[in-house]
Specification:
Order of helices and strands: HHHHHHH
Largest sheet: none
Mean pLDDT: 94
Low-confidence stretches: none
Structural class: mainly alpha
Radius of gyration: 16 Å
């Protein structure tokens, strides 16, 4: 990270990419607090560079939401998943496979909150999109 910061500057997308990759490692190791710090910094850089609702910020936003989900902070996860879903729908349209993934993630947060009916609707939408792209088998 320091090398890229020195070469590109602290707010460059290359730095954000490295921060996000490092956050992925921390998350896989169960170091969710450190992962969230890194994801947040990466997200700020990406949003500054691309804009708040650009499709390029969606993966980092989703990863940050995952860290909250894994720690049981379902409200934070849900809000980030909702934003990531809106970005994906705006960029890709309603029936893109990325939208299916975003629907699935949001449904998972809702399920953890006990909002089973709403989660079921989103899971079903996600499956329909998935089957449209890959078939039912």
């Amino acid at each position: 990270v320091r090398i890229k910061e020195k070469h590109y500057g602290e707010d460059h997308v290359e730095v954000a990419s490295t921060l996000s990759n490092l956050a992925n490692v921390h998350q896989r190791q169960g170091n969710y607090d450190q992962a969230k710090v890194l994801y947040r910094r990466a997200l700020r850089i990406m949003q500054k560079h691309y804009g708040e609702d650009h499709v390029a910020v969606s993966p980092t936003m989703n990863n940050l939401a995952n860290a909250f989900l894994y720690q049981g902070d379902y409200d934070q996860a849900k809000g980030l998943y909702q934003r990531a879903l809106r970005i994906s729908q705006k960029h890709y349209g309603e029936d893109h496979i990325q939208v299916s993934s975003a629907l699935n993630n949001l449904a998972t947060a809702l399920q953890h909150q006990g909002e089973y009916n709403q989660a079921k609707v989103l899971y079903q939408r996600a499956v329909r999109i998935f089957e449209k792209h890959y078939g039912e088998d």
